[in-house]
Every structure is written in C-alpha cells, then in structure tokens.
Amino acid sequence: MTTTIVGNLECLLPPSWKTTIAEWIREDTPSFDYGGYVVGDSDEVAILYGKSKGKLAGVPFFDEIFKQCGCKVEWLLKEGDEFDPATTEKGRFEVARVYGKARSLLLGERVALNTISRCSGIATRATKLANLKEQHQWQGVVAGTRKTTPGFRLVEKYGMLVGGVDTHRVDLSSMIMLKDNHIWSQGSITAATKQAKKVGGFALKVEVECRTEEEAEEAISAGADIVMLDNFKPADLKVSARRLKEKFSNRTVLIEASGGISEENIVDYFDNSVDVISLGSLSHGVPIIDFSLKIQPKH
C-alpha cells in the first residue's frame, strides 16, 4: 500500500532553498579541494545505488546540489517510488546516474548522499505510519513535530510530505502552540490562551498542550482551537477525547494526541474522537536509507 503524491512538491520550496544548498556545499569545501585535485576534471558517470529498502525522497535537493557543482542527474526512479535492493542480483538498486567532471561529482557526493539518505529515511517511516492509518481506516491525521535538525528542517518536513503524513506546524510562526512554560509565565491556561488570541488574530490557530482533561476543558473554554492531550495512555486518551467532543459539541475543536507514541503502538491511539496524532519519532532518531554513489570505471 502506497501513498500517491499529487502535484510537484518542489513548488512548495521557498526562494531561499537554493541558497541553503550553496551554504551546505560551502561548509563542506571551505578552502582547497584536495581530493578534487587528485581526480582531475575528466568527464565521468556515477551511479546512485540504493543499498537498503525504502522510499525515494529528496529529489529536488539532490538535483540542485549537483547542478551547483556543474553536473546533471538522470533519474531511473521518480520521487515517492519504493525500491528493494534484495530484488537485485548484486544487492543494490540503481536509482540514478550523475554526469559531470570527476572532481565535480565528488564535490557534491557527500552533501547529496547525506541529504537524500535522511529525507528518504523520514519518507519511509512516514509511509509505514500512513499505511497503518489506511489499514485501520482511521480518519484522523498522522503528523510530525518541530523536533527537527537545525538548518535541515526543510528537508525533513519535505520527507514527511513524500511519505504521506502531515508536517504539523513548520515553525514558530505558522501556529501558536502554548506549552507548560508559556502557561507558567502567564499563571494560567486561560491567561496564556487569551494573550495568544490577541496577537494571533483570526488567521492563526492556537493549540494548548494539556496534561489532564480538566486542563483541556479550560483551554477550550478560553478559546483554544486545538488541545493536545499529552502523554495520555491510550485508554485514558479515548475516554477524555470522547467526553471533550461531547461537552463542546457546539464548537469546532481539534483533539491531538502526542507523547510516547511510536510506529509500534500508534494503532492503540486510533479513535474517532482523536483528530491528530503527532510523533517526534517521524524526524527524531529515524534510520537513514543507505545510498552510495560510484563513479564507473572506463573500459
């Protein structure tokens, strides 16, 4: 079971993304390219091999890295395709070919591999979670969190989209989420929520992290659009979510479950009264998909 990508996800990327890639390349080669001197500038072809099973994600980033290095990529798979090296004789799956000068291929190699390995790893885990949702016919949203790598968030959130799950808020400016420290600073959930509503206006939703059902009631009464039931056990979550939906049936309030949820136990949290399930493990501690780039010997 796979999730179909509709539209070109590259169109989502902000104008700054190519500048970010230039910074990655600059970070990796801040001075002399000694290895590049060794291999020279002969025209070569390198093959991108997938060495572990997964879903391909991060194609625009890979393309742009090599474009900035003066190379051209020819893809044998498209973004979102799944592959399994075990189905091949040599135990490695040919994913793409990269054409360029030897020194240019090696200039982009590690930056490109790091990017596509990480992005594909996140997309692969996201796909597993999206498939579980479909298999159990749960109608809610599986989402990531803001537990992303500084400077690499765009790639990680992109991988979630390729895998068929929700990114959740992309940054602090895209939704107001009030956690324990925000509430502590204002003295109560009600005070913090009202402060947030004043500056967020009608355009920004306000979500409040709640440790108990009573806190969730206070948050909804104060005007929260979303309440996160944090670290609830599955049985308790379902009971509280149903009661909250019944009590506030005259309002459109989303209920999110988060904390302690993983690929192994997410099914236990599926319930018609739960609208969103968010997992830090979608970007935190995700295994990479192993790729290698090999320049082909000339015969």
UniProtKB/TrEMBL annotation:
**Superkingdom, natural source:** Eukaryota
Question: What's a single GO CC term here?
Answer: cytoplasm
Q: What is its EC number?
A: 2.4.2.19
Domain Quinolinate phosphoribosyl transferase C-terminal, first and last residues per copy: 122-294
Pathway involvement? Cofactor biosynthesis; NAD(+) biosynthesis; nicotinate D-ribonucleotide from quinolinate: step 1/1
Q: Which GO terms describe its molecular function?
A: nicotinate-nucleotide diphosphorylase (carboxylating) activity
Where does the record place the Quinolinate phosphoribosyl transferase N-terminal domain? Answer: 45-120
Q: Name one GO biological process term.
A: 'de novo' NAD+ biosynthetic process from L-tryptophan
Q: Does the keyword Endoplasmic reticulum apply?
A: no
Key words of the record: Glycosyltransferase, Pyridine nucleotide biosynthesis, Transferase
The record lists the catalysed reaction(s) as: nicotinate beta-D-ribonucleotide + CO2 + diphosphate = quinolinate + 5-phospho-alpha-D-ribose 1-diphosphate + 2 H(+)
> Top enzyme class of this protein?
transferase
Q: How does it assemble?
A: Hexamer formed by 3 homodimers.
Question: Tell me, what does this protein do in biology?
Answer: Involved in the catabolism of quinolinic acid (QA).
Q: What family does the Swiss-Prot or TrEMBL record give for this protein?
A: Belongs to the NadC/ModD family.
The record's NCBIfam families line, in alphabetical order, gives:
nadC
The name under which this protein is listed is Nicotinate-nucleotide pyrophosphorylase [carboxylating]
Question: To which species is this protein native?
Answer: Piromyces finnis
